[in-house]
Amino acid sequence: MPRIEPKEKQIVAATSAGIGISMTLAAITGAFILRWNLPLSWDQLIIVGLMIALFPPATVEYLDLRWQRGIDNNIPRLLREIAESGRTGLTLIRAIEVSADRDYGPLTPELKRLLARISWGATLEDALKAFAQRARTKLAQRVSTLIIEVARSGGDTQEIMEQVNRHVNELQTIDRERYAQMRPYAVVVYVAFGVFLFADIILIRTFFEPMAAIHAQALVSGGGGIFGGPGLDMVSLDRTLFHATVVEGILGGLIAGKMSEAHLGAGLKHSLMLLLITFFSFFLFVWS
């Protein structure tokens, strides 16, 4: 499970933005300046470019959040085993060294990095602060601060670490309950989007297109049509509803990620999924 550096995330975001902007400029240039006979319209190509641009940062954000969750999920086990090592008379640093040989998922390499800093002359406090900065999670920052205070105070380390472990378990229980309560709201976002998309397609296929056909037939037969004018512009109408659904998908995905996982970046994968659903739904049921 790789750790994604913040700088790497920025590079991926900048590269993806460059790809999206390039495809947008190419679509506009080909459609309005060079007059290319493109297989898709200019706005469809822009949405395709947007989906391609969203894929790398959505993947990177997913992997990074997964890595952070792996850190948080293994911290209680680490604290418990440090406390058990304390019962045998080991010092705090020695207990961490023993624990670093065990498998804590993505937490194990960070423990070894922490011990390497100490072996290079850094204090336990500085090494723990560096660990919290690399982990970038609230739980890691809280635990690092608590362990620093334990090292400063001395005394019965084993008993204090057990109390820290109980405190961390309570925090994680609260977080899990909050996420369990908020996660269904992501489903609500998908359902609301599905209703919006379904309504758009039904309106186009069963109302607007028949009305436009009736109007065109009335004009051909010599009548004035049913709208008293040129009638419905189905291309503009389809495009307007498509754009509205795209905006709904992007914003709805971000909201779903924020509500279900407490991270706005976690909504990128939802936005990408909703954009894919939008594009292929219109491609299959409206544009074909």
Helix content range: over 70%
The profile of the biggest β sheet is:
none
| Average predicted confidence as pLDDT | 87
- Total helical segments: 10
Helices and strands, in order, run as HHHHHHHHHH
Number of structural units classed as domains = 2
**CATH architecture descriptor of the largest domain:** Up-down Bundle
> What is the radius of gyration?
28 Å
Low-confidence stretches: none
Number of E strands: 0
**What's the N-to-C terminus distance?**
42 Å
Instruction: Say what oligomer this is.
Output: single chain
Overall structural class, as computed from helix and strand content, comes to mainly alpha
> In the CATH scheme, what's the topology name of the largest domain?
Receptor-associated Protein
Shape, please?
elongated
**Which CATH class of the largest domain?**
Mainly Alpha
Strand fraction: under 5%
